[in-house]
Amino acid sequence: MKDCVFCKILAGDIASDILRETENLIAINDINPQAGVHILIIPKRHISDIIGADDAIWVEIKKMGLELMKEKGINNFRIVTNAGNAAAVKHMHVHFLGEIVVDRKL
């Protein structure tokens, strides 16, 4: 998608520090962090939102999230995603938020 910021990052048109990469996913730091650790896990294939995601991508996201948890020494985290008009960027991604406590409002 030519106007998609994440597609531009994946194409190398926008610079980004890729923290982790697999065949199907990348992980980058969020440019507007809402937690001490705020990483975006983004499928390389343009999927509008979670409605278009298959089970395999969720398995990969879980695996990457657990790897990031271990790598960053995180004990508490949330994984958040949005769909439809709730999504600011219309390219499926999840927010990996580290060291979040139960009563923290996001």
UniProtKB/TrEMBL annotation:
A motif (Histidine triad motif) lies at residues 91-95. Residues 5-106 form the HIT domain. The active site is at residue 95. GO terms for molecular function: catalytic activity. This is HIT domain-containing protein. It comes from Candidatus Woesebacteria bacterium RIFOXYB1_FULL_41_13.
